[in-house]
Design brief:
Strand content: under 5%
Subcellular location: Membrane
Number of helices: 3
Shape: elongated
Distance between the termini: 30 Å
Radius of gyration: 19 Å
Main location: membrane
Keywords: Membrane, Transmembrane, Transmembrane helix
Membrane topology: Multi-pass membrane protein
Number of domains: 1
InterPro entries: TMEM258/Ost5
Order of helices and strands: HHH
Helix content: 55-70%
């Protein structure tokens, strides 16, 4: 991409400000719900360990825990 293209992209982006998918006021609720669901699903996964439950329970639980932890960290004011 040329310099002129980058300048045009920079100027075009100035008219469209960034708006996050989850607002600052709802980050705590989203993080709490994700963490709570992660603990529940990981508990179910702990009782039913098999190769079939890994994609059905293990992967969603780990994703919910990861995203929930980041949302809770951002909600309480620690920015990553």
């Amino acid at each position: 991409m040329s310099v002129e293209g980058l300048i045009g992209l920079w100027e075009g982006a100035s008219t469209h400000p960034f708006s996050p998918a989850v607002g600052k006021n709802s980050q705590f609720a989203v993080g709490f719900i994700l963490l709570l669901s992660a603990f529940i699903v990981s508990g179910i996964f702990a009782f039913n360990r098999s190769l079939a439950t890994v994609p059905a329970l293990g992967i969603p639980a780990s994703l919910a825990f990861g995203f929930g932890a980041v949302y809770m960290i951002c909600a309480v004011g620690v920015y990553v």
